[in-house]
Design goal:
heterodimer; A: 232 residues; mainly alpha; MetI-like fold; globular; B: 221 residues; alpha/beta; Rossmann fold; five-stranded antiparallel beta sheet; 11 strands; 26% strand
Chain lengths: 232, 221
């Protein structure tokens, strides 16, 4: 049904989206916690910076990533010399691009769920002998789980759709950085590419829809388990 | 024995409290907004005073002037909140054992089955807090605080969310705790009759000022 090139694009997209979700969780949860609970100078600026990619043309973060992480860029050179890593024109660069673009979508629901937790539950935990870290791990984090799950799925879905920053930062190399949206774009540019483009478009719509439905269903189940909702 | 002399100010509200608790039950009454809950939070370590000192058997728990602040998890002070504040994602049993597990075996004062029997909550162990009635929640919250083996128990309006019928059901359990376990308690309520059921030693708080009356004496520097 799919040609090898189409299947390749699909598999690459899944790989990039998966790693975007996994590597985004830790910084996403940390940022969400800082923005929800932290009191520090420059918080408004950090908040704006995290959300900036949502309102910028995606080509802008893509170009800035290229400047920073390209072969000549300071971060790129450092990564190359220290770890032998090369992000530009490599699929790992596509992960970074979609991470930057997806971070606001990951942070927002997690932050909201941190804000919604009754802080007296954390006080109760402290008064039962649990230190700040244990309280975070056994009370705060489990209670924020529905938000974290939603954030992870949104980051995954956003990564599946990421186009502008990716093509600017890591190019459109078949088998390396040509994810689903880039493949669709490439087919549309080719004469006679409508049929494969349509197949990939349908797959994109199906995947995005499935991710959102799954996120809804999982959240409802988790909220029931956590005691936020009744059995209804 | 707990001695405190505390000063705390936020916005226009100023709390001044001096007192001494040497066992038994003391009731703390006063209108809402008088600062009763704030005083408990200061004693438990959930808030930091601006000035003053809290001593527990001579050991300083907090003294801003000397930079001493013992965090709540190191104070061994149990707290029962108004609506129980049970952890919604844990079962009743997990709630009960939350503090118990943090206490080294040698420091534990009670066995879980003894407390569940005393409070008659043995049949609730596998349930989640959302499936409990208000009275059951409060008994579990009390059991959770007791199993932490506190050397002092602070109760913040533990019956305020219950109707008078349910109150009558819980008060005997509190009497049991008072008579059989011997943990000193500071019992906050705006309902004086409820407090009188447990003790005749009353403190009053009004507009941030604590009046310990004949039961408490002020402590010297």
């Amino acid at each position: 049904m799919l040609t090898p090139a189409e299947a390749e694009a699909l598999a690459l997209s899944a790989k990039v989206a998966f790693w975007c979700m996994v590597t985004g969780l830790l910084p996403g949860v940390a940022l969400a916690w800082l923005l929800a609970r932290g009191r520090f100078p420059g918080k408004a600026l950090l908040d704006a910076l995290v959300h900036l990619p949502m309102v910028l043309p995606p080509v802008v973060p893509g170009y800035l990533l290229l400047l920073a992480f390209g072969r000549q860029g300071p971060a790129g050179q450092w990564l190359n010399e220290t770890f032998g890593l090369n992000l530009s024109f490599h699929w790992t660069g596509a992960v970074l691009a979609s991470l930057v673009m997806g971070l606001p979508l990951l942070v927002q629901p997690v932050r909201l769920s941190f804000q919604l937790i009754d802080s007296r539950l954390e006080q109760a935990s402290r008064s039962l002998g649990a230190g700040p870290w244990r309280t975070f791990l056994t009370i705060t984090l489990p209670l924020a789980a529905p938000g974290i799950l939603v954030g992870a799925i949104l980051a995954f879905s956003r990564s599946l759709g990421e186009f502008g920053a990716t093509i600017t930062f890591v190019g459109n190399i078949a088998g390396e950085t040509r994810t689903l949206p880039l493949a669709i774009y490439s087919y549309i540019q080719q004469p006679g590419g409508e049929a494969p483009a349509w197949r990939l478009i349908l797959i994109s719509v199906g995947l995005a829809l499935a991710a959102l439905l799954a996120s809804n269903a999982l959240t409802r189940r988790l909220q029931r388990q956590l005691g936020y909702r009744d059995h209804a | 024995m707990l001695e405190f002399d505390l000063h705390w100010q936020r916005g226009g509200f100023c709390l001044q409290a001096q007192g001494r608790l040497d066992g038994g039950v003391i009731g703390l009454c006063g209108p809402s907004g008088a600062g009763k809950s704030t005083l408990l939070a200061l004693i438990a370590g959930l808030r930091q005073p601006d000035a003053g000192v809290i001593r527990w058997h001579g050991k300083v728990l907090v003294e801003p002037a000397r930079g001493v602040f013992l965090p709540p998890e190191q104070r061994r002070i149990g707290l029962v909140f108004q609506d129980g504040c049970l952890f919604p994602h844990l079962t009743v049993q997990q709630n009960l054992l939350y503090g118990y597990r943090r206490r080294p075996a040698g420091e534990r004062l009670f066995r879980p089955d003894a407390i569940t029997a005393l409070l008659d909550i043995g049949h609730l162990l596998t349930r989640r807090p959302r499936d409990l009635s208000g009275g059951e929640k409060q008994r579990v919250a009390l059991g959770r605080a007791l199993l932490y083996s506190p050397s002092l128990l602070l109760l913040d309006e533990p019956l305020a969310s219950l109707d008078s019928h349910r109150k009558q059901q819980i008060l005997p359990f509190l009497q049991q705790v008072r008579d059989t376990l011997g943990i000193p308690m500071l019992y906050v309520s705006h309902a004086e009759d409820e407090v009188r059921y447990l003790t005749d030693r009353l403190w009053h708080m009004e507009a941030g000022r604590l009046h310990t009356g004949p039961a408490g004496k002020s402590i010297g520097p």
